[in-house]
Amino acid sequence: MYGIPSEERDHFVLGCCISMATSFTGMPQDYEVTRKLWDGRIPVQFVLDNSEFLQRSAKPFCTMIPRMSYFPIALPRVLQYFNTIVEHIEPESVWLQYNGQPLKWHYPVGVLFDLLKSDDLLPWTVTLRTKNFPKEVMRCAGDALEISFIQSIKEADQLKHKANIINSMKSDEHKQLWNGLVQDRFDEFWSVNKKLMENSESEAILHIPIRIYEAGRPFRQVLISPLDESGRRRTLGDVLRIVHPEDEVIAISQGILVPLETPLLWMAENFCYLDNFIHVVLTAPT
Q1: Whole-angstrom Cα distance, residue 199 to residue 51?
Q2: Are 67 and 205 within one domain?
Q3: Do 84 and 102 reside in the same domain of the chain?
Q4: Which of 55, 134, 216, 244 lies 20 to 30 Å (CA to CA) from residue 232?
Q5: Of residues 116 and 8, which shows the higher confidence score?
Q6: Would you identify the family this protein belongs to, as annotated (predicted)?
Q7: What is the DSSP letter of 68?
Q8: How sure is the predictor about 138, in pLDDT bands with cuts at 50, 70 and 90?
């Protein structure tokens, strides 16, 4: 469970298990779970690419990045540090790499870590590059990340409420969601985001926003409702039986091995990332 302080891990796992068990009775959103997920951090060590920069002895820049955040939000601090060591680095030319693989800006940091990190060694060493910009990575100039983030929230609410809630919000509420993310302000973000979690008779959650990731392939989305035809709550296992009907896989979300019997509705309300999607990484059993 990377990115959660070690002294809190046992307590966090216990809280998750209790919440998952009691969620079958229809309990509301679990503050403790959402708060601890928000506080999850990953230690990252940024290094310059040796083939592009002559200052090979430049010390790495080390920082703790929220799992829920995105690399471009941390990048100004990274460049501020390296620009004191090397000739000025243009932000528009920067891309990041881990273990030979380009990192996609619009994926949450926690998703990239769960998807690509192949060992338990920390900090996570990420290489900063400026040449041969990869075609599969979108350039993150200006407000591109903010637009992408808000668009993901809109897509999630389209699935949940036919976009009724996000479209009824004012533009300053959209801005508050973004600012809450950038400035790492839990209360500011959730005072707006809680509206998107509504699940009442008048605004029931129709479908679960979920994205499934596997190494070496684009993510997949499954259109699935919270309940089946008999009224039974659908679970994470139901999704996996759709995407991998014959294979046994392990599901990781937020750095945690998630029980397959976990209800999707509970995950949508408590375990989603800030873009309101559940992001699940699948791996083969070892």
Answers
A1: 53
A2: no
A3: yes
A4: 244
A5: 116
A6: Belongs to the ATG5 family.
A7: T
A8: confident
Helix (H) or strand (E) holding 218: strand 217-221
Q: How many domains does the chain have?
A: 2
Q: How far apart are CA 234 and CA 257, in angstroms?
A: 18
In this structure, the number of other CB atoms found within 10 A of the CB of residue 77 comes to 12
Residues 201 and 269 in one domain: yes
Whether residue 13 contacts residue 5, with contact meaning beta carbons closer than 8 Å, is answered with no
* Domain identity same for 34 and 47: no
The continuous run of DSSP H or E covering 71 comes out as: helix 71-82
Per DSSP, 227 falls in state: B
* 66 DSSP β-pair partners: 41
Contact between residue 62 and residue 43 where contact means Cβ atoms under 8 Å apart = yes
Q: How far apart are CA 191 and CA 186, in angstroms?
A: 8
Q: Is the pLDDT of residue 63 over 90?
A: yes
Same domain for 110 and 188? no
**pLDDT tens digits, one per residue of 13-27:** 534 553 444 344 444
Kindly report the pTM of this predicted structure.
0.90
Structural domain for 11, as ranges? 6-39+144-283
Per-residue confidence (pLDDT) for residue 28, from 0 to 100: 54
Query: Domain of 270: which CATH number?
Result: 3.10.20.90
Query: How many residues are present in the chain?
Result: 286
What is Dmax (Cα atoms) for the chain? 65
The kind and range of the H/E element at 238 are: helix 236-243
Do the beta carbons of residue 90 and residue 127 sit within 8 Å?
no
Does residue 249 form part of some domain? Answer: yes
Q: What is the Cα–Cα distance from 35 to 232, expressed in whole angstroms? A: 28
CATH of the domain at 64: 3.10.20.620
Cβ neighbours for 200, distance < 8 A, ≥ 6 positions apart: none
